[in-house]
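Appendix B. One record, verbatim.
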Amino acid sequence: MAALAGIRVLEFAGLAPCPFAGMILADFGAVVTRIDRVKTLSFIGVDPLARGKKSICIDLKNPRGKEIVRKLCLKSDVLIEPFRPGVMETLGLGPEILLKDNPRLIYARLTGYGQTGTHSQRAGHDINYVALSGLLSKLGRKDEKPTPPINLLADFAGGGLTCVLGVLLALFERSKSGKGQVVDVSMVEGSAYIGSFIYKTLSGLEFAWPNPKERGTNLLDTGAPFYDTYKTLDGKFMAVGALEPKFYKQFLKGLDLEGKLPHQADLDQWPKAKEEIANIFLTKTQSDWCKVFENLDACVEPVLTTDEAPLHPHNQERNAFSSSHGAYEPTPAPKLSRTPADCLPKPLPGTGEHTVEILQHTGYSQSDIQELIDEGVVECPNMKSSL
């Protein structure tokens, strides 16, 4: 049995962080129902983060549509919504109403800036949230502009994953109190929290941050020659993380540079050492360097592409990826010994695909469902064959 078996989740359709949170819960056994909006069947594609979920299409502005949501909430453990503060209240579906209907409901609100504060009503994306967290100022090379980490840090780490953490904490607390609560997830705050180590070491860890106000000159931000990526003869790259002296010694052994470089902690010589190391890496292909470091405990690995990573022997042995129709996707993590997630590829639901099925399970009759469809309160892709 999966860890979250028996947990029922309602996920209001949104962009990346909210679907990611729902996908994690579904991967570990929760029954996740995504609420899509009507009139989106023709131009909304399949959500790539919707595996294992079910989809119902509801007109949330219609009183009967709101009634459906309230009935769904009565049998749900968790609700996740991605709208700006006040939207759910305007719809008549705010926590003060739904928690009154179902006092055990965990009501998760996933937004960029949180439910309160001067920015709470502002639009934004990952790059904006990471900027406001302070962390974007630390990402990038020396003398170059800050480099956003795609949309991984705020959307998925500070947003979706932090939301799941909040939901699980609330579920655990509910097991003792019997009461639900509101989980206020801010992607700015989630990102900053993930960066706690950076904030806590900026003052007091001089070796890590010799130049804390200058990007790309410090221990972990590509300033150090032993913590960076290097181009190889064939245009690929190797990743070096030889931080500790014992690993650094093995690293120099692999490069045949033992005794030929300044001391590892000689910060003034880092640029010169990096240049020399870069020139050596350019003399062999990535494959050649992999063989050199295969039996050296030097913290050196190839920079794999997303096509190559699923085929790496270690990742294959760990079943880190699964394939469906020739395409690879990561399997759920972490791996639980007794109640693991289901790592088999799951179908992606079409918008409104399960509308009829969900309404039936909620207690609506065939005639009620047909009436809701005819009035445009709900939609499903194939209305005739569904009934």
